[in-house]
Write a structure and sequence with these properties.
single chain; 645 residues; mainly beta; eight-stranded parallel barrel; four-stranded antiparallel beta sheet; 38 strands; globular
Length: 645
């Protein structure tokens, strides 16, 4: 028997192309773009075999979801030859049970691409998708030839109505204040080349740990697994093509137009996506080009509104052809301490209005927000974010605020230290900074009570908490906080509602300037007249220890799966200790490789950092050991298996 051996050659070109977005032209270096631009294959790649006659694409578009729900399924068939006797079947499933179906028979068709539309009206048993209950449905499309199934194509969808009005954002007919952050998908050591599990983890951090209900994918379409996680978690998405402050020539614009097309076609089945960014971030006006992208979006998906983030100088522009006015708002005034205090420009009356960026390092109190910075700087970030979200809730014309930024990211342009931009409330290692305390507290106290200081309990150099005076902020969603110093009652605190009248859970301010030599701080939080949460913090560094924690306890073998190993210096109660010296030595055994620095420079990262463990082709137990010269040792294990994780 003659066997044929085929070889697939892949050539990766990572050279600079000035005519490809988001790059600037030859007159400016690539580093002028405010984020890394990966080259090559940095996401997973699959080679998929399909029949000569197959389904190339499916868009499942729910309609009339608040009335009598229906589903319109737009299919694209790819026929490598002429075909007769074709039939297309559609089945809508909820938790594996069919709740609707449709079928259509097709006339004889020549080779090529063909569009087919099926309608599944009058559905019952549909559950609405929302941020609190993100119900998902499966749509299975089957192509049959001569009554024989030849190809299946499945997508997920969610039934929801999302609409921006001049009075805010409405999800399923109810107004929802948008509360969120911008996200870059880059990680230390590997840039964008982190696998699906690691990308999904960012969505979990934003939704579950920071309580965001929306994220802006700045400034490029991000990993599909991140969007899948947003669908499953109820995290709304602003999807955006590559671009930043620049529009090039005709070839450049044609490629940007193609980027908009490819983004929409790839992502239009995600119920989490509620906005198409069809105007590139902070770019100058180009009426002809943006009329084209607007028409393109309407032709590909008329169920979502469009937007584009406008530069600060363009607040009053009339050159805006899209549905929702997105504004990168870095308004600021001078604070009493001489730093910058963030403000918000007034919303427009003529368009739905969403603050697409705010704070960053442009209107907050500092150029950087590093864990090694003084405590007032780090706490200032939390207060700055609280201020803009409070202002955003003061007028219903603000649909919400998506602050800058969720996570630190590598960059080569402006306000950069050691190749990193530091505006994130979460650091590059995905560990919350004190600036995240405000976000962490905006949760329902009946579901998760929170006590989260935006300072470190540290009485000595280099950054003692006593320097915050009467403004040591403790973020909580509880009614009252009782403070104890070395077991003695120190203060009863109430939330600062006069200063933050619109924020659901404002900070509690404590005067710790007289803490003196107190070693132990205890904070009790009450709800309904009883203590529901108590947290303790120790200033005794002699009892500090090294914490090592893995995000996952299992990985799939094969080299395409990874998880984070978080390293922290903590006090005896597990609270963070930022100002440490020394490095952590790591030892790894088993079918995995370490992605990161070894030894890990814990002193440089403010007592908190991470490496990643990537599986190899083997299976078995992976053991990671960590040792610090003064904090001691820690150990963690996981299992690598063929179907683990």
């Amino acid at each position: 028997m003659l066997r044929r051996h085929n070889t697939l050659d892949v050539v990766v070109d990572g050279s600079f192309r000035p005519d490809v977005p988001p790059n600037h032209g030859l007159d400016r270096p690539s580093s002028a773009v405010d984020f890394w631009q990966p080259a090559g294959l940095y996401r997973e790649v699959e080679l998929v075999g399909v029949p000569v006659v197959h389904i190339a694409d499916v868009f499942a578009r729910p309609y009339d979801v608040l009335g009598r729900p229906g589903l319109r399924v737009l299919c694209e068939l790819d026929l490598g030859r002429a075909a007769t006797g074709l039939r297309v079947d559609v089945e809508l499933r909820r938790n594996g049970t069919a709740i609707g179906s449709a079928t259509t028979r097709l006339p004889p068709l020549p080779s090529g691409r063909h569009a087919v539309t099926l309608d599944v009206p009058g559905l019952t048993g549909v559950e609405l998708w929302s941020v609190e209950a993100p119900a998902l449905h499966d749509v299975v499309v089957t192509l049959c030839e001569q009554e024989r199934p030849v190809h299946d194509h499945s997508v997920r969808t969610g039934f929801r109505e999302a609409r921006f009005e001049r009075s805010g954002f409405y999800l399923n007919g109810e107004r929802l204040q948008l509360f969120g952050l911008n996200r870059h998908q880059f990680h230390p050591f590997a840039g964008g080349a982190m696998p699906a599990r690691v990308q999904r983890r960012d969505a979990e951090i934003l939704r579950d740990e920071l309580n965001c209900n929306m994220v802006r994918c700045s400034h490029y379409p991000q990993h599909e697994e991140f969007l899948d996680a947003c669908d499953e978690l109820g995290l709304l998405v602003w999807d955006e093509p590559p671009g930043w402050q620049y529009l090039g020539g005709a070839d450049w614009l044609d490629r940007a137009y193609r980027d908009v097309h490819d983004m929409i076609v790839r992502d239009r089945n995600h119920p989490s996506v509620v906005l198409w960014g069809v105007r590139l971030n902070e770019t100058p006006g180009n009426a002809e080009f943006y009329a084209r992208t607007q028409r393109l979006a309407r032709s590909l998906d008329d169920s979502r509104q469009t937007t584009g983030a406008m530069h600060g100088a363009d607040h009053g522009t009339t050159d805006f052809q899209h549905d929702v006015f997105g504004y990168n708002d870095y308004s600021a005034s001078t604070a009493r301490d001489g730093g910058w205090r963030p403000e918000l420009a007034p919303p427009r009356d003529d368009l739905p209005y969403l603050v697409s960026e705010a704070i960053g390092t442009l209107s907050g109190p500092s150029r950087f927000y590093r864990r090694t910075d003084p405590q007032d700087v780090q706490q200032g970030q939390a207060l700055a974010h609280a201020r803009v979200h409070d202002r955003g809730r003061s007028d219903q014309r603000y649909a919400g605020v998506l602050a800058w930024a969720g996570i630190d990211y590598p960059s080569g342009n402006g306000n950069v230290f050691l190749g990193v931009k530091w505006p994130g409330v979460v650091d590059l290692f995905r560990i919350p900074k004190p600036g995240a305390a405000m976000y962490r507290a905006q949760a329902d106290p009946l579901r998760r009570p929170v006590i989260e200081p935006s300072f470190y309990w540290d009485l000595g150099p280099p950054s003692p908490v006593t320097g915050l005076g009467a403004r040591a902020a403790i973020w909580s969603n509880l009614e009252r906080l009782e403070l104890y110093l070395d077991g003695t009652h120190h203060a009863t605190l109430a939330p600062a509602r006069e200063e933050f009248p619109h924020l659901p859970h404002p900070p509690f301010f404590a005067d710790l300037s007289t803490a003196g030599g107190a070693v132990e701080l205890r904070v009790d939080g009450t709800l309904g007249g009883r203590v529901v949460l108590s947290r303790s913090f120790s200033a005794d560094r002699a009892r500090d220890r090294l914490s090592l924690r893995l995000d996952d306890d299992s990985l799939r073998s094969g080299g395409t799966d990874a998880t984070r190993a978080e390293l922290r210096a903590v006090d005896e109660h597990g609270a963070p200790r930022p100002y440490v010296s020394g490095a952590v030595a790591l030892e790894l055994d088993g079918p995995a490789v370490l992605v990161g620095s070894n030894p890990f420079p814990l002193e440089d990262t403010g007592g908190a950092g991470a490496v990643w463990l990537r599986s190899t082709d083997g299976t078995g137990t992976v053991r990671l050991r960590a040792h610090h010269p003064t904090l001691g040792a820690a150990e963690a294990t996981l299992v690598v298996g063929a179907d683990a994780g």
